[in-house]
Structures are given as structure tokens and as C-alpha cells.
Amino acid sequence: MALFLLTYGYNDTGLRAERRDDHVAYLKTLKAAGSLVAAGPYGDQTGGTILYQADAEEDVEALVAGDPYTQADVTKDRHLREWKVTVGSVTG
Questions:
Q1: Contact at 8 Å (CB) between 26 and 60?
Q2: What is the rounded CA–CA span in Å between residue 67 and residue 60?
Q3: Sign of dihedral through CA atoms 24, 41, 80, 38?
Q4: Mean per-residue pLDDT for 38-58?
Q5: In order of start, what are the domains of the chain with their CATH numbers?
Q6: d(CA 66, CA 59)
Q7: Using an 8 Å Cβ cutoff, are 57 and 82 in contact?
Q8: pLDDT reported for residue 26
């Protein structure tokens, strides 16, 4: 499996607070299924990062599309890319 890093910002919308519980619940299901390694917002609350593990980028794109934040257009400037760890380790 490969690691994929998603970075994103937030759109200026009240839907962020409204959909937060659904977003977090969705991420917890991905974690339980082994598709999510870690996720969280930046300290300044301007966006966040999600680290996925999957066989292919297309698999992660489907996971991102299923996120309540994506569906409600809460996030913007989403960048998904494969990430290769060369020093240290990351485990799911």
C-alpha cells in the first residue's frame, strides 16, 4: 500500500461547523477500515491534512469524494499526492 497526503483549506461557510460531526465520523470509519492513518486541522484553523493509505490514488479520490466536507464544499484548494517516507516511519 502507498501513502497519500491530502492538504486543503476551508471555504468561508457556516457549513464547516454544521458538518463537522459528520466529517469526523466519516474519518473514524476510514480509520477503522485501515484507509486513514491520521487527520487533523492546522493550528491556525485555516485548513488541514489527511494521510491515507491505499493501493491507488483513484481509491483515495473516491474516499475524498465521500467526505461530508467535500460534499458540502467546505474545503478548497485540495491537493492530493502520493507521499513516500524516507526517514522515520508512519503506521496506520
A1: no
A2: 11
A3: negative
A4: 96
A5: 2-83 (3.30.70.1060)
A6: 11
A7: yes
A8: 98
Contacts of 45 (CB under 8 A, 6+ apart): 10
47 grid coordinates: 485548513
The helix (H) or strand (E) run that includes residue 68 is: helix 68-71
**Per-residue model confidence as pLDDT tens digits over 12-43:** 888 999 999 999 999 999 999 999 999 999 99
Residue 17 neighbours by CB distance under 10 Å: 9
CA angle (76 as vertex; 67, 24 as ends), nearest 5? 30
CA dist 65 and 73 (Å) reads: 10
Strand bridging mode 47-54 / 36-41: antiparallel
Q: How confident is the model at residue 84 (pLDDT cuts 50, 70, 90)?
A: very high
Evaluate whether 51 touches 4 at the Cβ level (below 8 Å).
yes
- Give the type of residue at 82: E
